[in-house]
Amino acid sequence: MEALQTLWESTALYAFTIGQAVMMLVGALLLFLAIKKKFEPLLLLPIGFGCILANIPMAGFNDPGGLLYYIYEVGISTGVFPLLIFMGVGAMTDFGPLLANPRTLLLGAAAQFGIFATLFGAVLLNYVPGFDFTLQQASAIAIIGGADGPTAIFLTSILAPELLGPIAVAAYSYMALVPIIQPPIMKALTTKEERAIKMEQLRPVARREKIIFPLAALFLTLLFLPTATPLVGMFCLGNLMREAGVVDRLSKTAQNELINIVTIFLGLAVGSKLSAHEFLALETLGILVLGAVAFSIGTAAGVLMAKLLARFSSTPINPLIGAAGVSAVPMAARVVNKVGLEANPQNFLLMHAMGPNVAGVLGSAVAAGVLLALVG
């Protein structure tokens, strides 16, 4: 009987808690959204599986010496994984639409308004019983509004690593829900006539411009906001490798093999932070709500800024393209194109929306740098 008792106590069933069971169901839900609904599958799948692994009793994945422990310590606590992801994203980004219409940089900047509005919202939430966010935690929550997963993880790992799990899940979940969240906001703030506006064809952008731009962006960041240099610098490196035309092997590696490997480890590392004792808290609900608010405000601010630009522009501007400034590349631009086609079947806005879309990537990195400089 003693042997049977020892055997029973060594099983996971003996040590299971209700919280762990709930979190394993959360992991299963993330897998369902990734596989069945195809919501950000490249990240939700490893995050969901990492969540399940992290909540298996006595498996030791998260303990010192465990696989997930080392993945997190090497890649997340050091900030390496988000920076490598940014380099890969830079290598996949074409700044041509932004350079052809530089005004769209303002749309990417306007969409970051959701970040700073939510910062105040997180602070005000402390007046509700049960919530007690520090300024560092509030800043980490606010970055969800940028709809940029790597930036959210990078900033959170520095300012509030204890909130990494819920913030990362919120950031990537709302990125995946762009086709559901954005259209109602876009339609509520525009008329059908505005959504049907056709924009003029973009001018061709010379190769020299594309090479100079990442160098200029890095120089300006170094000069005015050095705290954003890690993110912007790696992004510009990836983009320069793409546009230089002399390191195609490096560029393709950054776009494919490297970013794919890092994405697997990044997802597992984030999933490792979805253990029951860290995730099942009232603060998690507040983070999810604030993340939705941040994303919605960012979308609305981009659309409103585009409407303002249209009033003073000599060429037509469709206000829908402002919604792409939230940085979820390229999904937000595709949603803009889809909503535009619904209003006018001859209205192709994809390339026009890519301008504010890539501007939003830079904008979220700059916003993260500002928050680091203020509260880091």
Automatic annotation (TrEMBL):
<keyword id="KW-1278">Translocase</keyword>
<feature type="transmembrane region" description="Helical">
    <location>
        <begin position="356"/>
        <end position="375"/>
    </location>
</feature>
<keyword id="KW-0813">Transport</keyword>
<keyword id="KW-1003">Cell membrane</keyword>
<keyword id="KW-1133">Transmembrane helix</keyword>
<dbReference type="GO" id="GO:0006814">
    <property type="term" value="P:sodium ion transport"/>
</dbReference>
<dbReference type="GO" id="GO:0005886">
    <property type="term" value="C:plasma membrane"/>
</dbReference>
<keyword id="KW-0739">Sodium transport</keyword>
<dbReference type="InterPro" id="IPR005661">
    <property type="entry name" value="OadB_MmdB"/>
</dbReference>
<comment type="function">
    <text>Catalyzes the decarboxylation of oxaloacetate coupled to Na(+) translocation.</text>
</comment>
<dbReference type="GO" id="GO:0015451">
    <property type="term" value="F:decarboxylation-driven active transmembrane transporter activity"/>
</dbReference>
<keyword id="KW-0472">Membrane</keyword>
<keyword id="KW-0812">Transmembrane</keyword>
<feature type="transmembrane region" description="Helical">
    <location>
        <begin position="104"/>
        <end position="125"/>
    </location>
</feature>
<keyword id="KW-0406">Ion transport</keyword>
<feature type="transmembrane region" description="Helical">
    <location>
        <begin position="258"/>
        <end position="275"/>
    </location>
</feature>
<feature type="transmembrane region" description="Helical">
    <location>
        <begin position="12"/>
        <end position="35"/>
    </location>
</feature>
<dbReference type="Pfam" id="PF03977">
    <property type="entry name" value="OAD_beta"/>
</dbReference>
<feature type="transmembrane region" description="Helical">
    <location>
        <begin position="287"/>
        <end position="310"/>
    </location>
</feature>
<feature type="transmembrane region" description="Helical">
    <location>
        <begin position="67"/>
        <end position="92"/>
    </location>
</feature>
<feature type="transmembrane region" description="Helical">
    <location>
        <begin position="163"/>
        <end position="181"/>
    </location>
</feature>
<feature type="transmembrane region" description="Helical">
    <location>
        <begin position="42"/>
        <end position="61"/>
    </location>
</feature>
<comment type="similarity">
    <text>Belongs to the GcdB/MmdB/OadB family.</text>
</comment>
<feature type="transmembrane region" description="Helical">
    <location>
        <begin position="211"/>
        <end position="237"/>
    </location>
</feature>
<protein>
    <recommendedName>
        <fullName>Oxaloacetate decarboxylase beta chain</fullName>
        <ecNumber>7.2.4.2</ecNumber>
    </recommendedName>
</protein>
<dbReference type="GO" id="GO:0016829">
    <property type="term" value="F:lyase activity"/>
</dbReference>
<keyword id="KW-0915">Sodium</keyword>
<comment type="subunit">
    <text>Heterotrimer of an alpha, a beta and a gamma subunit.</text>
</comment>
<feature type="transmembrane region" description="Helical">
    <location>
        <begin position="137"/>
        <end position="156"/>
    </location>
</feature>
